[in-house]
User: Fold this.
Amino acid sequence: MSSEEIRLAQRWYDQEALAPSQIAQRLGRDKLHHVKQVPRKKQGRRHLTEPQVDQLLRRPHQMIVSADAKYHVTVQMLRKAAKTGVSERIILEACHRRGGYFRKLREKPLLAAEDIRARFAFAKQYKDKSASWWNSHVHAFLDGQHFKTYLTSAARKMAAQHRTFGAYRVPGRGLSGGYVKPKRGLAASTRSKSSLVMGAIGKGRLLLWHAGQAAADLYVGPLKANDPTGFQSNKGKMAKCESGISTFAIPTRSPDLNPMDFCTWSEINRRFRRQEAKWSAAKRETRPKYLARLRRTARKLPESLITSAIGDMEHRCQRLFEAKGHFFEESGA
Assistant:
């Protein structure tokens, strides 16, 4: 090979990441002959050229539209689809330079000024408590949840779409197919009904699980069925006092401070969707069987998951204190 051919081969290899066979075709030479003469760069951190970034970023849109909000499109999936040897970090850096990010879609309650003050006061009181303290001193974290009973394949498909939090997107794109998930509240479109479930975790296990009327009775207690205030009413507090139950009050509109909210319910939903993903489209499920499967799934939650979720209150209170009562970045359980 001439010096000019070696120079061209080197440039195509380094800048365009051409394969040896492609370089050989351009030069009109035998593959094995020219590869031995092309100087190799020392191994180190690989980078993407701008043409490579252009080619890489054409893929996410196709992948997201194909996913149709039924599952996450992640940077790991993008790397695999692109068959590139660069790291996920390099891909993310390239995406960031073009204004694209892999982000979760978030749904948060609206906090009033008094809510923020109450959350900040809660954080001041408990920010120094350890994970072991939370697991040993709070007997049970109790919460109620309305579960939709998705009995058909069409309803289960829409339920799976709700579990998709977000996707890679660039400015100006995000309202077309694949980027938008169905809004909550599917009763009209799927005929799915809700079932109230009352559950509690503590000491590393599921302590309580009631569904349907039993859950409603537990929630209302001695109250009339049309009393919307439930446990937080004066009658509800009096009933707990008479039963010897002391209340550990979590600030209102704070699902990020109740392990049942930020871990247990979502984990049950994830396990449900994984189970249903293996079913045939023709499979139907009765409401009693759905509720029975819900109970079995909840009782099979591992002790390590529950202990970790309750222990994460240590870090959550610290982050809440740093945020001065506002919402904080959640991580951990």
About this structure: The first helix runs from residue 3 to 15.
